[in-house]
Amino acid sequence: MEESLDDFVSELKNQIVEELKESYGEKTHQRWQNPEYMGSMKDSDGYACLKGVCGDTMELFLNFEGEKVKEASFQTDGCGSSQVCGSVAAELAQGKSPDEILEVTGEMIMEELGGFPADDAHCAFLAAETLQEALNDYMVKQTKE
């Protein structure tokens, strides 16, 4: 009996994973399993924390070296979609100048993931907006120095 229950649970888990991959795509699934650039950053050059329409909070941290982002990271208390989008936003900022970061949009994040369900598009826009606010924080600090 226990073995058949284990088999059932294993099969159910595999089915759920396959349905997630079908809905979100392989790239999103891989990023969800292995999020990159997750974590806070002390003494960041640029920082933002925004709350999305769904209630998720996204934080983005930027450190610059010269005119390019040397390091970017994010944190979120949100769902897997917010986590994936924050990870992509931080990745898209890596090695970029402020002008290049200004070009990062929610659409770009979804495109990078190879598509994204419309119901979760707000997560991509939250990540992009948070990145833009972190850049704004950096730029304001630069004008004060």
Question: Could you explain how this protein is built, in words?
Answer:
By secondary structure, this protein is of the alpha+beta class. It has a single domain (2-144), classed as Sufe protein. Chain: A, CATH 3.90.1010. It contains 6 helices and 3 strands, in the order H-H-E-E-E-H-H-H-H. It has helices spanning 2-24, 26-33, 80-93, 98-101, 106-112, 121-144; strands spanning 46-51, 57-65, 68-76. A 3-stranded antiparallel β-sheet has the order 1-2-3, covered by helices on one side. Helix 1 packs across helix 2 (26-33) and helix 5 crosses helix 6 (121-144). The longest helix has 24 residues, at 121-144. The termini are far apart. The mean pLDDT is 91.
Q: How is this fold's topology laid out?
A:
Blueprint: H1 2-24, H2 26-33, E1 46-51, E2 57-65, E3 68-76, H3 80-93, H4 98-101, H5 106-112, H6 121-144
Helix pairs in contact: 1-2, 3-6, 5-6
Number of helices: 6
Largest sheet: 3 strands, antiparallel
Question: CATH fold name, please?
Answer: Sufe protein. Chain: A
Strand content: 15-25%
How would you classify the helix and strand content by structural class?
alpha+beta
User: What is the 3D form?
Assistant: elongated
The mean pLDDT is 91
Global Rg: 18 Å
Name the helicity range. Answer: 55-70%
H/E element string? HHEEEHHHH
| Total count of strands | 3
When the domains are counted, the total is 1
Strand order of the largest sheet: 1-2-3
* Top CATH class: Alpha Beta
CATH architecture: Alpha-Beta Complex
Query: How far is the N terminus from the C terminus?
Result: 70 Å
